[in-house]
User: What shape does this take?
Amino acid sequence: MNMVAKILAAFGVSLAALAGSAQAQDAGQGGRVFARCAICHSVTPGKGPTIGPNLKAVVGRKAGAVPKYVYSSAMSQSRIVWDKAVLDRFLTQPSKLVPGNKMAFAGISSPKDRADLIAYLDTLK
Ligand code: HEC
Assistant: This one.
């Protein structure tokens, strides 16, 4: 990460979120959407595993990579890398992208909510 990105990250802003602002992604709003995830996922470094794996720095990470978290074999063998486009597909309908995964969540139908949420996740470097 370069210096500018580090400074922005310190304020909870990512370059990608800024670059994506043409699509009106709102990481602040995404933080509120994350309330739907927070019952199962922590984003505090080192916290958990809880019901779901920790989602700190999930953007760009390989699926199934949180140490000590016991993933389903569907997830751990998915060979997915969580870039933003893949996260958008996953969060639309988790059971469609990774059949047999154990995340008990139907999905988020609103594209705007997904975009905001992913912009928020992208701030968690
Ligand atoms: C009811 C609990 C629950 C909710 C709500 C939930 N998740 Fe999950 N999530 C899980 C579980 C359990 C897994 C592990 C899935 C597996 O191993 O098959 C998971 C896995 C994931 C992964 C893969 C992580 C990795 O390390 O590979 C992502 C990304 C994710 N969830 C994002 C979200 C987001 C974003 C939301 C909110 C919209 C959300 N989840 C809501 C339980 C939940």
